[in-house]
Design goal:
43% helix, alpha/beta, Rossmann fold, globular
Length: 282
Amino acid sequence: MALMDPDASDDMIDHLVDFFDQIAPAYDGWAGGQHARVAARLVDLVKPKKGQRALDVGTGTGLVAHLVAAKVNPGLVIGIDLSDRMLSFARSKHGKNSQFLGMAAERLVFRPETFDLVTMGETLAYLADPGEALSEAHRVLKSGGRLAVSCQRRSLSTRAQDLFFQGLAPLARRHYLSLPRYSSERSRFGEPDVLPQLLESAGFDVNLLTEMVTGGRAQNAREWIEMMAGAGPLPYTLIKALGPRYRMELEAEVESAMDSLGDPDDAFRYHHSYLMAVATRR
């Protein structure tokens, strides 16, 4: 699988950064605090130790970084991201042994073998060049250092989620919206037959592979649409671009789609499934 996406243009990166800037205030609480639960599980798996130096790539609001900082104290955690607004929320949490910098994962300024630990929580599929980012993580890790990665496993989405995402492209065409998108290959980064290969090809030995499934159910179409708007840059941009009239039309379409599932238990139900890997630098 080619990791460098030919569609990873400046427009795509700007689109992603804008998305994360926009959702930053709601990120920690989205879907009942899902991101916080995933961050906590990833940190539990990688078991940071006192005195270590850690790098959190795609740190966002610092959910992983601050948890790691508490474990490695008096060690240091550096979190990097391209979203200024996400970084401002990370800094506002006032970690004593954490720093947050604007930096691309593919162009780290750190010297080789600087860190004991690198974390990438819900990050890999959003990077302009995931392969180069993994190479950079390998470069800045000490020999025997560990990499911890979480990726969404989209193949375990519910029937309701599948229906919703299938309707996004027609929705965009209907409203004459053309948005940059990565290739569909990235949707497989969280699969058990893909993620270990990506890490091993970058010079890591995978020590631990496990899954985490969170989920819930929205009460109605309006709540469902608001929740799904936070699921990624494409649904967010499409949904937020709709005026009141078209939003009501979308709610009616969602209600109809949920009815078409047949089983009421399937309606408005969502799963957010993650594959988590801990690997050692060769």
